[in-house]
Amino acid sequence: MAVLDDLSGFEFEDVMEDVFRNLGYENVRQAERTADEGRDVIMEEVVDGQRRAIIVECKHTDTVGRPVVQKLHSAIATFDFEGPKHGMVVTTGRFTNPAQEYATRLQQNDDPHPIELLDGEDLREIADEIGLNLYNGRIEILCDETLRPYDPAADVDGPVEEVFRDIENIEAADLPAPRSEATFRPVVAVTADTNAVFETSVGIIHRINERTRFVVHAERGHPQVADDDVATLVTENLHATVDLDTDRFGEVFDEVEERRFGQTQTEYKEWAVDRLQDFHTTTVTYTGDNNVTYNKTCEPNRSDISVQSIKPVYLPEVRHTTDLKEYTYPYEYYAAGPSRVTAEDGIHRCVHCDRSGVDETFTYCPSCGAIACDSHTKTERLKQEPVCTGCAVTERFALKTKYFYDEDNLEAFREEYTDMPIHEKAMENKLLAGGTVVATLLVVVGLLVIGGVI
Ligand SMILES: [Zn+2]
Ligand SMILES: [Zn+2]
Fold first, then answer.
1. Of the residues 274, 301, 322, which one is the last residue of a structural domain?
2. How far is the CA of 405 from the centre of ligand 2 (A)?
3. What is the rounded CA–CA span in Å between residue 259 and residue 310?
4. Ligand 1 center to residue 388 CA distance, Å?
């Protein structure tokens, strides 16, 4: 375990924190470094419904002797925990015979505080088993679980077809198959409890007792908290993950990309604690014994925040692009089986003015492939079909602009127009035609008045 051998003492504890979390222990944390009483990592496990604490002494040394085990044993007795307490000593090296004998005797005597020993060889086995990648002296998160990138009960292109159903003047049958790419993006779902009480001379002024769940985008670079919609998608589907098998998904998608987690679980934990500390910090106003009003900033300590779990998982981001004549339409979403959260919708969007939204009406222009909003969609005068303002050829007839697919249609209509009787020509401009009727009526009325009829 060459990489482990190069670590400093503190880094070894970080590595072990990750290892234990990967093994499924809960509330894994490190003891305050200043008050190190021979317990480095503290964690919990639940056996038959009973929660017990395990105090782990991490020794990054070649050999560990009996005094280390003995010292841990007495430290466990004084460790403050309601419930059973066990101990563990972990080393990158090996244990001396007296150390092993001491631990064995505790087990044999049914000691209430038994101690388990893990040596370098055990650690190597565990690392293999949980797939830890020793990379640049860090344990990167290795995750092979992903939310489903598509609903196996439906077509992969189903979502994009569904969106195109909202677009006027184009049928699903006319759509070319979109190009589909799946990017597996690392996220971590964090569950943390914050428990803090703030007291002054007048008593308790503020109390925090809250469980927080959030989802973090965990690619290289700064961790970023996911939107509520995305967080809900992830947390509600965490039970329905599948193996991230790029070969298998490669048969379904045109392209598959798997991103890496940017930081270790311990780094995400530290980051989450910082964030929650900020989040829960508030200023409380209270009245003192002397009737004076005070403002006090209540900031929970880092030790008031316990990260119960950090669950890494891949969140598939699926991008479909559909080519229609001169235009390409992207549609991108985060997927979890049949559920999805839209990230980019280039289909409900006018190519001419960028107007967008699912409540707007958009119409497909068969002439150029544009999807256009109502104000950029006109009726082709000759065919009486939609055409967009971007590609239409125009000419004014009866003082009104008419739209055509092309010069040929325009020319065909010119001939039609020339042959029209005058009242039909007037109908080419409804407003004008309406005005003409009123004007005609006035003339008739005028004539009748003159004729002495009225
Ligand atoms: Zn428009
Ligand atoms: Zn057009």
1. 322
2. 8
3. 18
4. 9
